Amino acid sequence: MLASLAIRPRVCHRHQTWLPSMHPTLPLTRDLVLIGGGHAHALVLKQWAMRPLPGARLTLIDPHPTTAYTGMLPGFVAGHYDREALDIDLVRLTRAAGARFILAEASGIDPDSRRIAIADRAPIRFDVASLDIGATGRTPDIPGFAEHVVTAKPLAQFADHWAEFTTTVQRGRARPRVVVIGAGAAGCELALAAHHRLTSLGFTPEVTLVEQHDRVGPGLSAWARRQLTATLMAAGVTVVTSAQIRSIDAGGLTLSDQRIDADFILGTAGVQPWPWVSETGLAEHEGWVRVDAHLRSISHPHIFAAGDCAHLDHAPRPKAGVYAVRAGRILADNLRAALQDRAPDQKFTPQTDYLKLISTGGRSAVAEKYGIAFQSSSGWWLKDFIDRRFMARLNDLEPMVADRVGGPMAAGVKELVTDTQPLCGGCGSKTGRHALGEGLSGLAGPQRDDVLAGTGDDAAVLKAGDQQQVLTTDHVRAFVEDPGLFARITAVHALGDVWASGAKPQAALATLILPPMADRLQAATIAEIMEAAGRVFANAGADIVGGHTSTGAELSLGFTVTGLTSKAVQQGRAVQGDVLLLTKPLGTGVLLAGEMAMRAKGRDAASCWASMARPQNVAADILSPVATAMTDVTGFGLAGHLATLLGQASARLALDKIPLLPGALDLAAAGVRSTLFEANRLSKDVLDTPGEPRSDLLIDPQTSGGLLASIPAAEVDRVMAEFRAAEEPVWRIGEVTETSAERAQITAR
Description:
alpha/beta; FAD/NAD(P)-binding domain; Phosphoribosyl-aminoimidazole Synthetase, Chain A, domain 2; 3 domains; seven-stranded mixed beta sheet; six-stranded mixed beta sheet; 21 helices; 39 strands; 24% strand
């Protein structure tokens, strides 16, 4: 088949020549789904990046773009590490592994039908699945605990709360009073870290450690307890043992014999399983998934589990991140075996004891193993070395090296081959404005009386009885590996021209190209795509009425959309004195290019996806009645689409008022560009800018960008008030200046 000789672009190291790979694309036949981005799964992704299994599709499901590393949490609380150093970037890891990343929370598993439930989208099918979802903080049956206590797990949530609290203290809106519930190793470590951090900020903190047992460090050796007790006393941390908490409120704790005031209350008294696991039908022990020595569910051997969520039937252990780290390689090998229909042969034997390094706030730590403990600065440096080495393993990610250019080639090939990146997805893969204009220059204009607008416009406008019908089409290469997210964004993107015309969406036809895969994978992928797109069109008031599918080299999707209006808003009719409004920030092109090259931060990529997936129907409803001209900002960038919007008018933009997506400016300053960027430079002939990264983002190709409208100045205050009332974002970015017979001039300062 032609599809088996697919041209698959591959990412390369910087300054190496990129060429498309001519190796056959093997069909996908097995689905492996990792539920949760815990430490074991992070290591599985790293192993997969180094040694993928041909024919297997790997998917990670997690509600966050990053996951916090347990080992560095106390150091972050103490102020030794910044927030970013704490995070394992799941977006970069999945990109390196060539895996799908579904940024959502799993809510259930049907192990028999092999489906994973996720809210507001189609179930995800699997052949083999693995859980590494960790645990949540235990919520004791104490009045006020759930409302007023921040638990240490989930880690990322606690880290964000702590960062917010320290900022609040610095601004004088909270006092440096902290209570830590639970004086185990974690509680002692975090109490000392909190005391150190607040002291380093120039405050005299009041840190209290509350423990229901009669001593600090239950479960630790006598030596370790003595070391920790002495350290707590020396630091000035108040320790309350044999404590019975009666109630908790926003101002502190009420014990059976005293009151402890607090502005931040942290709970470290154990963990509990996520409630939905017990509803899956998997064999469990007190809510934890029971697994054998191969980390397989003892009731459903096609499902694996590791980390805190797993109960090792053959070797029960307390919940500790060190076991998940040790299990990562074993899990990766056994998952590969299961995907090949082989019996897993790697057994996980957790250590009976391990070196515990308990940091004491400053750069010192208590080291304990086999009941022997000592405190020294060398313990902290050892812990720091171990933690940084672990993070380096997950952050040392190199894009795949492409085939090198060799032998003779036709003239002009080297000039067209990009040295630093493959072809971008989304609008970054589209034809440049100049080439498109030349290609369409010989096409005749509308010949029919009922075609009111056609070639050269974003959408055709057709006469339909006493109404006008808007007709548009858009098709893009996949820019994310999650088919559902890709479908949502592509649907919103395709609707952009209808909304920009002031029309109400009516119907859509889909065009879907799938890479080679087994029938059941095709069916599942189509279901994910159409369910996600169907939601977008239904919410916009339109129906998907049909479409076409085919097999090709890679995933791509498009929609032909119609809409109805009494009179379409057109381009090229901006009036001098109009104000320019924009409804989405810029930067999708540079962020998508940066994410593909693994240079974008996961959090920034997630913000970019969320912006692209945001529909524009409410914004269109507000702008359409008053706009003199309107367009959506897509492949030609803000400057290119603004030039079309202006017609014969000119515009003055305020660079500092133009909204940018998080991370876009940093990537632009670092030289990251979408592959369509150079073609968009042709719009520079009408764009006068200072020539800096911020102004370069004016020609950054956008996918599912915002609406750009010119409205009369007299309407601005009312329109802005409507946006505020609807809780829809909008930015005033400039104004339309003089009209002349010359082409539009755009000034940005």
